[in-house]
Design a protein that fits this description.
There is one protein chain. This protein has four helices and nine strands; from the N terminus they run ααβαββαββββββ. With about 170 residues, the chain is α+β, with helices and mostly antiparallel strands. A seven-stranded antiparallel sheet has the order 1-4-5-8-7-6-9. Strands 2-3 form a two-stranded antiparallel ribbon.
Length: about 170
C-alpha cells in the first residue's frame, strides 16, 4: 500500500472501508448518521464517552478503532466536536426539501462561517470539489471551543466533502 494515513496523512478508501466506524460499503443510510474516519490505533475514546446512544464503542484495549452501530446512531453529532483527531462527521442524505445532503464537520478556525454563506467544499486532501451553502455554524460551550459547521452539498459529494474553503 502506497497510499493512506501512514504515507500521506490522508486515510485511503481501503483504510476507511476496513474501519469499523465507517458505514459498511461506504453506504450511509438516508438519515443523519455519524461517519467515523479513524484508522489509527491510538489510545483515544472521547467519541465513545460522548455518545449517549451507545452507538460508538472503543472498548478494551483503548487503542482499538472505534466501532459504530449505525442502527443506534441518531446523528446527534456530539461525537463530532469531541474527537481530538477531527475524524468524525455527520452525513445527512435527506437534505432540505429532499434535495442535497448536509455534511457536518469540526471547524477550528476563526471566525466561524455565517449560516447562508456560500463556500467551496473540500475533500480529505483539501482539494476543492464543489460548492456548498453553510446550514449550521455553532460553537457551544459543551463543544470545548471546537466549532461544528454543516454544509449543504450535492448528494454526490457527501462521501468526499470534509471541510470548507471560504471565498
Amino acid at each position: 500500500m502506497t497510499k493512506g494515513q501512514a504515507f500521506d496523512g490522508v486515510a485511503s478508501w481501503e483504510e476507511l472501508e476496513a474501519s469499523p466506524g465507517y458505514p459498511p460499503g461506504g453506504k450511509v443510510p438516508g438519515r443523519r448518521v455519524a461517519v467515523i474516519e479513524c484508522v489509527q490505533e491510538i489510545p483515544c475514546n472521547p467519541c465513545e464517552t460522548a455518545c449517549k446512544q451507545g452507538a460508538i464503542t472503543v472498548g478494551t484495549p483503548i487503542t482499538s478503532l472505534p466501532s459504530l452501530d449505525v442502527d443506534k446512531c441518531t446523528g446527534c453529532g456530539l461525537c463530532v466536536a469531541k474527537c481530538p483527531g477531527l475524524a468524525i462527521f455527520v452525513v445527512d442524505l435527506t437534505g432540505e426539501d429532499g434535495k442535497g445532503a448536509v455534511v457536518e464537520f469540526p471547524y477550528e478556525y476563526q471566525p466561524l462561517p455565517e449560516v447562508g454563506e456560500g463556500v467551496f467544499v473540500v475533500n480529505r486532501q483539501g482539494e476543492v470539489i464543489g460548492e456548498g451553502i453553510v446550514k449550521k455554524s455553532v460553537r457551544p460551550k459543551a463543544y470545548d471551543k471546537t466549532g461544528v459547521v454543516g454544509v449543504e452539498v450535492s448528494p454526490s459529494l457527501a462521501a468526499e466533502a470534509r471541510s470548507i474553503k471560504r471565498r
